[in-house]
Design a protein that fits this description.
209 residues, alpha/beta, five-stranded parallel β-sheet, 10 helices, 5 strands
Length: 209
């Protein structure tokens, strides 16, 4: 088997705290029933289409803010920024990724983007400096789990699927990677995610205790 020397990471929910947790906190701040925001962007036909359009770069963040807020019945000013107010870096996973890169692993970011204004979810992470490859979905007018996008990230990594590991917090985003021979990890808990990364890469990514 080809040694796995590429690590591809989703952004939100992998390098950050839980997106679902942010959505729940937002519902409560906005006076909405628990689960309302996620239901609108995932289960409501119009809301899901709007979210997909945002990730593909087919609409701007401002357009998404206004149209999604209308479905929620609330003000749309900086809606995305308000939803993700509690999103913070996940330092243990970021440190593990840094350790992998220091050990010679090629490191990539593979993220469904959300636009950069008025709220830029990537601000402060300096992705260009800290990762070898950065793929944001809007730049390709596709989104995970569109299969074509997985071939693009492997091309940018300059590695075959059998040499890569992919970590994402959304289960539906994993099968297209697995079909290309990529080892996949569903990120649910940071410590477990790191342990699975270590096993897949054959490297220790955390300090000895």
């Amino acid at each position: 088997m080809t040694r796995r020397t590429g690590l591809i990471l989703d952004f939100g929910g992998v390098l950050t705290t839980s997106v679902a947790g942010c959505a729940l906190a937002f519902d409560r701040r906005a006076g909405l029933p628990d689960g309302t925001f996620l239901s609108v962007i995932a289960k409501d036909r119009e809301g899901a289409a709007l979210y997909a359009d945002l990730e593909r770069g087919a609409i701007t963040q401002v357009q998404w803010n206004e149209r999604t807020a209308a479905l929620l019945g609330i003000d749309g000013t900086n809606l995305l920024g308000r939803v993700l107010e509690d999103l913070h870096p996940e330092p243990t996973v970021i440190a593990a990724a840094r350790a992998a890169r220091a050990a010679g692993v090629r490191l990539g970011i593979f993220s469904n983007s959300l636009g950069t204004g008025p709220y830029d979810v990537y601000a402060g992470y300096d992705l260009a400096a800290n990762y070898d490859v950065v793929l944001l979905s809007e730049d390709y007018k596709l989104r995970k789990p569109d299969p074509e996008l997985y071939a693009v990230i492997l091309g940018l990594m300059d590695l075959p699927g059998e040499a890569c590991v992919f970590v994402d917090d959304t289960a539906r985003n994993l099968p297209p990677a697995a079909e290309l021979g990529v080892a996949t990890i569903l990120a649910e808990d940071p410590a477990d995610t790191i342990a699975q990364m270590e096993a897949a890469l054959g490297l220790r990514l955390t300090p000895e205790v």
